Amino acid sequence: MFPIRDYNPRKSTPIVVISLIAFNTFIYFQYFDFQEQKLLQLFSILGIVPAHFRFITLITHQFLHGGLLHLISNMWALWIFGDNIEDRIGHGRFLIFYLLCGISAGLIHTITQPSSTVPCVGASGAISGVIGSYLFLYPTARIWCVVPIIIYLYSITVPAIVFGIIWFLIQLMNGLIVMASNEDVAGVAWWAHIGGFIAGILLLPLFLKKEEPDESDTDMNL
User: Fold this and answer.
1) Which of 65, 145, 156, 200 would be 132's cystine partner, CB 3.0–4.6 Å?
2) Is 90 exceeded by the pLDDT of residue 179?
C-alpha cells in the first residue's frame, strides 16, 4: 500500500519539511555516482553499523539513501505526512521531533541487530515517527493509496488509522522474520521503522503546542 496524498489541510507553509527534502536531495546528489566500493565505504563511515556502533551515525545515517527510489519514497512520505505534523507542533519543534525519531529508530535497529555489519542508512526511521504521530493526531484523515495486486494497481482511499495499522503490521512481520533468521532481509532495517513509529507516538505529547482558544469562544466568555 503506497500513499499518494492525504486530504488534510494545513494552515502554514511546511518550511522544515521542504528544507529536509531539499537537503536530503542535495546530499544524495553529492555521492549518487560513486562507485560501489566508494559508496560502501561512505555508508560504513556515516551509516549505522551495529557491530561497530558510533553515536554520531545516529544523526548522519538519516541523510543518506541507498538509491534514487529509496530517496523519492522517503521524501514523498515526508511530504504527505510531515506537513500536518509541522503545522501542529511548530517548525522548530518539528525539526527536533524528526531528528529524535530518527535517533530512536537507529538505537532500536542497533539493539535488535547488534552483530550486523550491514550499514543502515536513510530517513525511514524518522519518517516512521512522523507517520506514527500522524496516525495518533489524525486517525480519521483520508489517505489516497495505490495497492499493487499482481500486475494491477488499485486506487483506494482509507482512514489514516487503517493505513497506519497495515503499515505497522507489515513492518512488524518483516521485523520478526529478521529476528528469526538473524539476518538483514533485503537490507531493510525493519526494526528501525518500528522503533521510529513507536517513538513518534511516545514523543509527540512532549512537542504538542497548547491549542489557542477560538476568538469567538473568548468573546462568548466575556
Assistant:
1) 200
2) no
